[in-house]
Amino acid sequence: MRVWFAFTGAMLWLGIYLTGFSTVHWFAYVPAISFVFSAITGLCLPLTAAFKLFGVRIKEISNQTVH
To answer: Which of 30, 38, 40, 58 could form a disulfide with 5 if both were Cys (CB 3.0 to 4.6 A apart)?
Structure first.
């Protein structure tokens, strides 16, 4: 997941660079920063916010084996 965040963040930053830092709207920096932050820290705040907003629960999987 972190590799995907890093790759997507890098593509966003490349697009911002090729367009021009002064030309791009300020809101384009928000996803670019959040993807890089998620890749570095492992905390995906936008994904967590979307889960809470839509009421999605992640199923927890136990690593215990049944004997």
So the answer is: 38
Domains of the chain: total? 1
The answer to whether residues 35 and 2 touch, using CB atoms and an 8 Å cutoff, is no
Sign of CA dihedral 29, 47, 39, 41: positive
| Amino acid occupying residue 49 | A
pTM, full prediction: 0.70
Encode pLDDT of 24-52 as tens digits.
999 999 999 999 999 999 888 877 888 88
The DSSP secondary-structure symbol of 30 reads H
Measured CA to CA, the distance from residue 66 to residue 58 in angstroms comes to 22
